[in-house]
Amino acid sequence: MLAQANDQVRTATVPLIFIYFFFYDFAYTAMLVLYTLEILPYNIRAKGFAIMNITIYSTNAFNSLVNPVALDTIGWKYYLFYCGWLILELLFVMVYIVETRGDCYLFASSSSCGLLLF
């Protein structure tokens, strides 16, 4: 009975992962580009977009190369570190990311007030 339940769970997990990542990628991939281009003034938009892409590629490389080594080295404790890092990222977003809801995109770029180092 338990083995049959495990097989059903295993069978359902793979399609659910694909469904989850379809909607995640559908929303998040476009949001990265749109938000970055929306908040940056026109004269630094290309530089900001380039920095965004460099940041994304470097974090993807870090996650691909460092996470498996750290997980093998310290085991389940890495999940505690990772959750702490996610909390720090959340705090950063809450403090520093410009809210653009209800604003015209032209006003969003003026509210950043040159926070980027350009």
TrEMBL record:
**Presence of keyword Oxidoreductase:** no
A GO cellular component annotation in the UniProt record: membrane
Keywords carried by this UniProt record: Membrane, Transmembrane, Transmembrane helix
Residue ranges spanning the membrane: these are 12-37, 49-66, 78-98
Q: Does the keyword ATP-binding apply?
A: no
Q: Where located?
A: Membrane
Q: How does it sit in the membrane?
A: Multi-pass membrane protein
Q: Mind listing the GO molecular function terms for this protein?
A: carbohydrate:proton symporter activity
Which PANTHER family does UniProt cross-reference here? MAJOR FACILITATOR SUPERFAMILY (MFS) PROFILE DOMAIN-CONTAINING PROTEIN, PLASTIDIC GLUCOSE TRANSPORTER 4
Protein name as catalogued? Major facilitator superfamily (MFS) profile domain-containing protein
Q: Which organism is it from?
A: Suillus subaureus
